[in-house]
Amino acid sequence: MTQPIELYFWPTPNGWKITLALEEMELPYEVKPVNIGAGEQFTPGFLAISPNNRMPAIVDPDGPGGAPISVFESGAILQYLGRKTGKFYPRDERARVEVDEWLFWQMAGVGPMFGQASHFRNYAPNLVDDPTKIEYSVNRYNNEVGRLLGVLDRRLDGREFVAGDYSIADMALYPWIKLAAIFGQDMSAFPRARAWIERVAARPAVQKGFAVGKDLRKPPPAPGSDEQKKIAQALFAQTAASTQSAIEKAKQG
Ligand SMILES: N[C@@H](CCC(=O)N[C@@H](CS)C(=O)NCC(=O)O)C(=O)O
Question: Is 41 in the pocket of ligand 1 (CB under 6 A)?
């Protein structure tokens, strides 16, 4: 009997990329929640498979040669699952290069830039005493998010999906692009991207994958509350030294 893949997960766009893929590829999986607001990403067990203290990560008990394998970084996980199943990741070299281009564009461009835009727009205003201090950063990342949406919109001219058939590149992009509106973007400026969102959203596996972790997500803590400061400290004030002490603390249980 196939053993389920362990998915180390918290309900965020990077986590949903993998639930979308696992659902679409019809692979059995078991969710192992990693509460990143509570510092669970620093536990020794998790760091052994994800040394960057970020989720998602997977452990596939049935890896190459029948032995277990762990994978961290969502792009590497998507490629691994695509190679394992032969689905949504074409074998033909030209087609695969196209998927890789758009997958890496998401990993190196969309993910980090949307992440910063979300940070400065949705979190930082509650963490600084004077909002004018972050005006430059808000504009910088909002502009970049808009520019990237423009790139996607042009790419989708005459195409249903970003690289040939529906692929792991679409799966990597969808959770972030779907949220663009909450980063303050006017999506009516990007009609082809908007139509693509609807096309992807209509897929049953996407609906199932996106629903994973609903029960884990709590409403955000009140601005200025102790709870909010604790989460902000755990997520947004990480340094090499603070990471080291979080690891030491987690080791002691
Ligand atoms: N490049 C990584 C990014 C993953 C990432 O940023 N994960 C965040 C949640 S979306 C996380 O685990 N944060 C924990 C932390 O900041 O300590 C990937 O795509 O897997």
Answer: yes
